[in-house]
Amino acid sequence: MKLNKLFITAAASLCLSLSVAQAAQTSITVGMQLEPPNLDPTGGAAAAIDEVVYANVFEGLTRYQADGSIAPALAKSWTISDDGLVYTFQLNSGVQFHDGSAMDAADVKFSLDRARAEDSTNAQKRLFTGIASVDVVNPLTVKITLSNPDGGFITNLAWGDAVVVAEESIGSAANNPVGTGPFKFSRWVQGDRIELVRNPDYWGKAVALEKATFKFISDPAAAFAAMMAGDIDAFPGYPAPENLPQFEADPRFAVIVGSTEGETILSTNNKRVSDKRVRQAIAHAINRQEIIDGAMFGFGTPIGTHFAPHHPDYVDLTGNSAYDPAKSKALLKAAGAENLTLSLKLPPPSYARRGGEIIAAQLREVGIQTEIENLEWAQWLEQVFRGKDYDLTIVSHTEPMDIGIYANPEYYFQYDNAAFQKMIADLKLASNPADRTKLLQAAQKQIAGDYVNGYLFQLARTGVANAKIKGLWKNSPTQANDLTGVSWAN
Amino acid sequence: MLRFILSRALTLALSLLVASLVIFAVIEVIPGDPAAFMLGLNAEPDTVAALRTELGLDGSLPERYLRWVGGMLTGDFGISYTYQVPVAELVGARLGVSLPLALFALLLSTVIALPVGLFAAARQGRPTDWAIMGATQFGIAIPNFWFAMILVVIFAIQLRWFSAGGFPGWDQGFWINIKALLLPAIALALPQAAILARVMRSAVLEVLSQDFIRTARAKGLNQRQTLIHHAFRNALIPVLTIIGLQFSFLIAGAIIIENVFFLPGLGRLIFQGITQRDLIVVESVVMLLVFAVILVTFLVDIAYALADPRLRRPE
Scanning every residue of chain A, which has its alpha carbon at the shortest distance from the alpha carbon of B273? Predict the structure, then answer.
């Protein structure tokens, strides 16, 4: 009799959980491959942090939109002085943090001063180093003075690292983020999921979803099973592109293929591979389409320079380094480098590991031997990125508009070109759109012409979602899963 | 007896000391700076230095070793670099998954294996025995992660009776969690049950060949009564030893199954800790596991000595 009762309770609780799942059309479960280490976007570089909290929990003065453009967020409007040095922001009124305290100019000042402070642990501190002072004019007006004009400053403020936080809650943001966004942090079952709930007191347009759950599944096979079983409603950064045709054929699912800001490149140590003819030979030895097909199952756009193809200022320079093994061999011969052996150090992502093997085979065709070494991320950062102890490596540079990294001679490419450095310096001062376009295009041509790195492809964003979900981002102009516009059909 | 316990306790303490030195040394030589890893590609060098100070990563090796061991002795296992919560809290939460999963799997494997082994022994040499032995051979040969994936394909994707994985958390109710752990437990239990059934069968056969069994039969017990009252209980001793070994394997070794079913268990915590260079978590969790194994050995030694007075004499 007792046993019977147990079974009834068990069956009842199972039915209950089933019916709850079916009624809930205002909640969504989003799959992510990596769990964020913490939830403070101002204190770590992990993309997974922004993929949970950006635009959902935390907001900055400005924000990225789905198409990559910048829109006002906490700042309602702004004016820029004629010399380009003073930005005056008008803040939206009635904005509250999730703990009920008001958001005002003092919080903006605190956030920016904290990010640029001497002992700041902000991973993108360079975004804020141009700020000379932040002044509170009145509770809804804040004045930011730069030490030099910076045409990209409004964009800088849209980064997840530039969100507005409150002094009294930022200390515990790692595990209890308190922002101003349309979703409030609810709970985090570490290793399994993070739950957000709708913020009823949101200052802006209310969101359609009542609850959002981010679930962490690192294994690609498990991710496939979870989508198929209906445990996950959307997996925007789906880790196994080889399964996508199967989802495409299934009417329950929609496959979303978009672009990211990730230029995937064969980074080259320009101090070690110092002969431009050798770098050019490497560039002509690479068959990009073969890499995209072999390593990425056909997803990805070929690039010929370090710039996103969907950006209006992009110049198609793929012809500059077209696949031409004969030319490659001739260049190597002219450079006297016919018996070349180079190290090729590969970080964990599949674009690098699979792509690395294909590139090694392609380089062997023209007579360059490679020594492949597989590294973990932490090792890669130490050896390649900081130690510069490498000849070649493959990595996707996922930060938006990051061509400026080529102006730093200490960067791991070890590329030191005064002409290029001047272009980037001029770009910082230029605020006229036509001038900026001209400079950006010249910069793209300069690094392509110098064959600084092998330019492979723009990383695609491949996602899968329940076909009834509307409003997910297609492209990924910044690392985010913005759920503010997401809803279920019917 | 006291002298015996003291000498064993001394061995225990020395083993822990050596283990802590080895763990610290091995983890310190792994390349990769945790602070640089956390801050990514665009961090300025002074930012990395600031974070290193914040994490307590500066200071000489001996200094840091003493700080670590001293903390553990006072029950302070440190703060996770990445999660920024106390390691003890993290481990506690993960044990809430790993421990029930291991117990559940152990229960399943025991409930399956003991009757099957006993039955095979009773039918020794007959077709049923051959069939059972063949099946257990098969069970040992199947990798548990493959079996797990087959279970997911059938019960989660096709039939949709279960979730493909995940763990709701104990505050969400009891049965919903048992349901979440059922497929992983079956996947873990099957190979263990196959091993255990074979051990059970040979242990029973060993006992059946002894004199007291003949005596029992001679005094008029039938085969069923002999098996259950005499053979089964005596065969349990080697079987319990194997169950003990399996339990520690199930606690620490379920990492692949945890990945297949994306369960937030202890194995995944260590794995994540290593890839994210959360060294303090790795050091402390490995140390805890070592401590658990050494402690179990210590207790087993004591238990044997209690059971068998010959072991108490100093060698």
Answer: A37
Q: Which domain holds residue B235?
A: 93-312
Percent of chain A with pLDDT over 70: 95
Specify the range with the lowest mean pLDDT, choosing from A310-314, B131-135, B233-237. Answer: B233-237
Within a domain: A227: yes
Q: A479 and A360 share a domain?
A: no
Provide the ipTM.
Answer: 0.76
Choosing from A114, A146, A167, the residue where a domain stops is A167
Domain harbouring A69, CATH code:
3.90.76.10
Q: With CB atoms and an 8 Å threshold, state whether A193 touches B268.
A: no
Q: How far apart are CA A338 and CA A347, in angstroms?
A: 28
Both A142 and A233 in a single domain? no
Question: Dihedral through CA B265, CA B271, CA B277, CA B282, nearest 10?
Answer: 60
Q: Determine, yes or no, domain membership for B289.
A: yes
Q: What is the mean predicted confidence (pLDDT) over A34-58?
A: 89
Alpha-carbon gap: B280 to the closest alpha carbon of chain A (Å): 14
Give chain A positions within 8 Å (CB) of B165.
217, 222, 225-226, 231
Question: What distance in Å separates residue A3's CA from the closest CA in chain B?
Answer: 14
A63 and A192 inside one domain = no
Is B179 inside a domain boundary? Answer: yes
Q: Across all residues in chain A, what is the average pLDDT?
A: 90
Q: Which domain holds residue A83?
A: 59-167
- The DSSP line for B122-160 is HTTTSHHHHHHHHHHHHHHHS-HHHHHHHHIIIIIIIS-
* Of residues A429 and A29, more confidently modeled: A29
Q: Is the pLDDT of residue A45 over 80?
A: no
Do A426 and A467 have their domain in common?
no
Of A31-40, A72-81, B131-140, B294-303, highest mean pLDDT = A72-81
With residue A141 as reference, give the H or E element that holds it.
strand A141-146
> What phi and psi, each to the nearest 5 degrees, are found at residue B86?
-60, 140
Tell me whether A189 touches chain B (CB under 8 Å).
yes
Q: Which residues contact A413 (CB under 8 A, 6 or more apart)?
A: A267, A268, A269, A270, A405, A406, A452, A453
Assigned domain for A401 exists = yes
- As a whole number, mean pLDDT of residues A49-56 equals 94
In a 3-state reduction of DSSP, which class is residue A207? coil
Res. A263 pLDDT band, cuts 50 70 90: very high
Task: For chain A, say whether B167 makes contact (Cβ under 8 Å).
Answer: yes
Shared-domain flag, residues A348 and A395: yes
Based on the fold, state whether residues A64 and A126 are members of the same structural domain.
yes
Residue A185: strand pairing partners: A196
* CATH number of the CATH domain containing B188: 1.10.3720.10
Higher-pLDDT residue of A214 and B280 is A214
The answer to whether residues A399 and A302 belong to one domain is: yes
For tokens 């019960």, the residue is: B155
Q: Decide if A325 is inside a domain.
A: yes
User: In this structure, what CATH number is given to the domain that contains residue A353?
Assistant: 3.10.105.10
Which residues from chain B sit within 8 angstroms of residue A125, using beta carbons?
A: 43-44, 47
Which member of B164, B175, B272 has the closest CB to residue A226? B164
Q: How many CB pairs under 8 A join A and B?
A: 166
Same domain, A361 and A222: no
- With 50 as the cut, is the pLDDT of residue A162 above it? yes
The verdict on a CB contact (< 8 Å) between B50 and A192 is no
Please indicate if any CB of chain A lies within 8 Å of the CB of B96: no
Shortest CA gap B173–chain A (Å): 9
* Beta strands A253-268; A454-466: pairing state: antiparallel
Count of other CB atoms within 10 angstroms of residue A2:
6
